[in-house]
Amino acid sequence: MALDKNGIAKRIAKEVMDGYYVNLGIGIPTLVANFVRNDISVEFQSENGVLGMGPFPFEDEADADIINAGKQTITTLPGASFFDSATSFGMIRGQHVDLTILGAMEVAENGDIANWKIPGKMVKGMGGAMDLVASAENIIVAMMHTNKAGKSKILKRCSLPLTGVGCVKKIVTNLAVLEVKPGGGFKLLERAPGVSVAEIQAATEGDLEVSGTIPEMAL
After folding, report:
1. Helices (H), strands (E): how many in the chain?
2. How far apart are CA 106 and CA 163, in angstroms?
3. Matching Pfam families, A to Z (predicted)?
């Protein structure tokens, strides 16, 4: 059974380690904060100038003045701080963020990512994604494996305008956990509960290495 968005976020939360500074992109990545273990200390950073974000608020807790970069209302943890965008991007460009989690429309087998523009549709711009993909050492992508028409989004080459080149390290989709190999191509690490290797292979356009027995994700 393929994962839903919360399932993808829950699996990615296992990649978040004690003491990490983490930037969460728009979409599925914002859900990751809801699933981080309670016994570790993590600082979530948002490029609009917040450090110390907590889980999403319940409706009666929401404060319209406290938002993330996607304009969603958020909570803050004790000790959280607010600052201007120049300071925020100084953190990002100075490589003070340990893990960046982004959504994507497409990822290529060489680690390219396209996540900001579909030709013909108006968007305001790339936003902070350009700085994040250029500066981050560890980028994990949260995305659906295929589009609504069933076509693969895990590709040999991206067809959409690129956000970054050769930067993605790992991908968690509704079907699988994939590693981008240093020389190019994807390696299948885990499969979603009830999803077969054959289903993942059929949904993946890029070169996919399958070695040995592939375990199910531990959620």
Report:
1. 4, 13
2. 10
3. CoA_trans
Q: Is residue 34 domain-resident?
A: yes
Q: Residue 109 sits in which domain range? A: 5-209
Tokens of 149: 């028409």
Intra-chain end-to-end CA distance of the chain, in Å: 13
Residue 173 lies in a domain: yes
Pair of tokens at residue 5: 């968005």
Q: How many CB atoms lie within 10 A of CB 40?
A: 11
- Decide: pTM greater than 0.85: yes
Catalytic residue numbers read 47
Exposed, middle or buried, 136 (CB in 10 Å: 0-12/13-18/19+)? buried
In the predicted structure, residue 190 carries a pLDDT above the cut 90: yes
Query: Which residue shows structure tokens 């079907």?
Result: 175
Number of domains the chain is built from = 1
CATH of the domain at 90: 3.40.1080.10
Q: Is residue 121 part of a domain?
A: yes
